[in-house]
């Protein structure tokens, strides 16, 4: 057999090593690459384009693109108006805040964002979490102004946190929300949100403030005397209509406009029905008067001290992470479909700045929404200009059309929310997870049940904790497998998987399948001792093989060894030598 | 080339898979192995021996073993008496509690423990942490009874926590205190402890209660008027004597009795000097009257409710983990030297039960001490009976010799503590860490500086946090390396390390060196995109190679792929196909 020499890698100073490591950790995408070898002027232009992506696509913008963006912008606006009002109610905020939040943030995002498909505005999950967390300390019914102030302050902290993650290149933190976690979490949140809508769908006036499945259901069935048949009739008719159009939209993506337009059509229809029949006097509750005009400033409403600061920061942190996860995932999904790049850290800065500005212009937390971005994409949006079109439409609405919503019944908002969140329950994905990886399914289930029976943020925390625990477990309990020789070759393979591989008498060949570090040296010591003892016990029993003389450890799959790992090898050699076994570590011909 | 077939591993049901995984995770040492195929009676005997290791070695105990154990037991008793008094003072507890804690726990350990070398009793680090944590809420000077109650309660929770870790087979939690963390933490704690001793060594009466390096030094230099030259003279003479004997003990292990006996000799000498010169009236503070008699019961002093419960549980948790780490590490070290096995989880139960019993018999937290176990080992101990001998000696002391300590000066206790903790500063090990792994050294430094400038528990938390962060980083940022073919073979190697490996035109061969899971799929996608872009940029620049046509990913070092990992491969294939690159994943001939 020919021998190939391993040369040590080129020498690097400690500083350079740390620099390299730092770069790989925080700048894996090497954002400065494009600046290399360019003139100063080009560098400035590239720099400005890097910070404001609008400068990249803006100069080449033409009528054809505009036409596409107008169509998609109007479509998402027709969705954004009813959803904005509905989601604000989900967060226990005045409905108009939902509309404000669909006006300023899209404009900011259009300038800073690098996704061409993201439709920005309030989203269900973040609204749900913000509402349920703030309600722990302040009641929106008895102290609406304070509640609003806390919501804006939380939004500010959410934005600050999101932008910092981007600036500090710590975007990988959101990677710890695994796919399984998200599937379970979303499904649980969707059920919680839907159950909450029973309040408006059944017309109950005295409803629990809690989010758990138990208090909500008890509220529903202990208040049967408050059920209003007019509300129920109207609610479930429109719910059926919305679900049907949603189904059509999914089955035939070309008919996206059916599902996209349905909420606005429902709102108009329901409003007309109420207006014509004066149903507000017959047990159907309506939104009521909404103030006309654009977003009022709200920077004087931000709380940076006082007794609720802790709650506000915590709420900001959690809604910030959750909405960031949704926004980034949506951006990446559609970027992959259209084959362009979305820079995660840059997106975080864009979303963060958008929320910081939003918090001082009466907006609550916003991000790129799954459902609206899909509609945007299907409607043929070409650039972030579709967000500008949407914002302009919202502006017109805020300035002139507010009186129209006076008679909009709350029940229709409930139906819109249920239709929107029902899509978050992804049973095929859950089944797929079960089939592929049982442990991932357990994570999924914990997130789901945690959200249902503990709390929205509790379920999330549990699922993230289990996911990280699983990763740490893989490290603390690395697999060790026994290898055997394939006769006639010098190749060694897993005895468990290769039928023709055979053991070599006197040799125990083990492969360790993880980096060796402080977290697993103790385990490896115990496990290897057990391997050798098992081997010797077998020798004693069968009397066929010769005793154990050599232990060979294959390190092909060991990518790193730390100082504890080095001590581990020293100690292992010592222990084995006392037993009369020779130990060698090497990379085998695999 | 011959083809060897991979057969799928034998089919296992989901339940069996989970069972196997569970066993590998929590029972890697397979404790029930020895019970297999034995008669019921033998099983009972083995079971009793498993729970009470004393039944294993007790029946074979003989006079020769006893002789060895008496020598070593008396030796460690001579060390345990002065150290017990000193460490109790370190925890701001009455000196006698240190003696109580060297009487009951060793007896319990002798019955339950599986190490033959562990010398059980109070230790410096755990004493330091307990004292400094409890002082945050209660002053031992103004409310000594409450302080004592909290100390016993913390001990109870420490024991409960330790025993639970053992019962639940979660012992691997202490593995997260890496070697580097411990080196830094110990050194920092040793300096903090030594600085605290300046109070008694300089004879200062009004000393700060804080532990940080800054308040302590300012206390020292703002109180120069309180320095007492008699105390300083006595203190530093004995300190020099103790350090000298310690040095002799290290250089010549056969003269272990010199260093082992020195503390007791110092105490006797110092006490005689004070008694003869009536120095207690000339600025030298003494211990004062100590109560005669064995441990009084203290179960009625345990607090399970009230305002300090949180602090007590936290203190129990931290002192529990730290003392467990020391005890297990000491046990394993000497077991490896004498080539016998110590079962980590069983040891945890033993140490835990010892502390639970201790907490109701006026003992504070105890474990196996580094320094005393080394003396025990050098003195030739054979079984845990040396702990019984030590306990009996302590009993005699408690019953009859207490009046002798009345004139023992506090300064000598300070000197004993400094001598004991100086050995915890392991500069060669720190240097070795720097040479081997810079990141581990950073962890070490953080633990060290955190202890010095933040707090003992703060430094520990920071270091553990960084260690875990490092492990997670290895997973979130797995190495990807480019492989090349070694001409004339079908072997592929790291291009960076094998000079004779060459690239194959049109092929990009990458090896991923970590399990692929939710935490790194995003990174891998970005990184692999960069690899392909780099490749294409190079092709453009040199015009020598042909364009990229195939991407081959070597998964030899990938031991696990979760559901996110599977989506990653699907998405990667989609992205690459759009670029006209073919992707294949395989295990290469390495």
UniProtKB/TrEMBL annotation, chains A, B:
InterPro entries: S04_transporter_CS, SLC26A/SulP_dom, SLC26A/SulP_fam, STAS_dom, STAS_dom_sf. Residues 497-582 form the STAS domain. The keyword Aminoacyl-tRNA synthetase does not apply. Its main location: membrane. It is a multi-pass membrane protein. It holds the Pfam family STAS. This is STAS domain-containing protein. The lineage of its organism: Eukaryota, Viridiplantae, Streptophyta, Embryophyta, Tracheophyta.
